[in-house]
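QA checklist item 7 of 12: single-chain prediction sanity check.
[x] sequence parsed
[x] length recorded as 300
[x] structure emitted
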Amino acid sequence: MKRAMNHMNPSSADLASNHRDYDRIAKAIDHIVTTRTGQPSLEELAAHVGLSPFHFQRLFKRWAGVSPKQFLGYLTVEHAKASLEKSQSVLTTSFDTGLSGGARLHDQFVAVEAMTPGEYKAQGRDLVIRHGVHDTVFGPALILTTARGVCGLEFIADGSAAQALAAAKARWPLSTFLVDVKATGAAARQIFAKEDGDKSRPRLLLRGTNFQLQVWSALLRVPAGSIVTYGDLARVVCSPAAVRAVGTALGQNTVGYLVPCHRVLRATGLFKAYRWGATRRRAMLAWEASQAQGPLPQVS
């Protein structure tokens, strides 16, 4: 993940710039899926998003660190299938079942604390949740943070920040909500604009059932640039037969990107539904792969 953040400056202005870049890239991705061309030309994509080929190429270099051609190579089903094959053992070798109750799990980039069963039952009573909407590299997001860490990160998939906030308040019915863009802005910069040499890590406060916490714990061990199947996740958590239950637990994740449910695909390698939109999932996976793996080999 260090490489994933190298090219990003941790300023609010640059986060806004990344948001604008993301809007154009998402439009390009949608065009690829809709037209099913597979290998659209640079000129075609540039025209679709209203940019010259030169500026479109520069946009990709700024946002993804690679050319549009290299980036699009990470969006193919073939690449997804190859990644799934290489990632089959990643969970088996790294899964840590210690995240339950009040236990703590520390991975390389995120420090996670789970609410105790008593806190879970109390539905956030006495918890102060600060919230704000911020531009990010993957579009606008509602960020919820507490003194113990980030407890929510919801991408605004439909443009309705008010709806996302209402849903968050329903999940934490006994908590006190305060608008605090300074606090949430600091969290956004830490999450999406982390530089090499910055030893601070995002902290998470997760609220869920023991099973949900086990699923999310396993998922935190999947490194950026890798993807796994629902079956792989079910196998290391409890049983290969629990695929549906694992899918339900992933659907209950409300901390986008940091708890990386976008890294779980079907064994076919197809990009299906995602809580915050299939286009955003494609962008996340291709962006992470381009940062972690570098440019794909050119095919003549």
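[x] summary fact logged: The CA atoms of residues 225 and 293 lie 7 Å apart.
[ ] second reviewer sign-off
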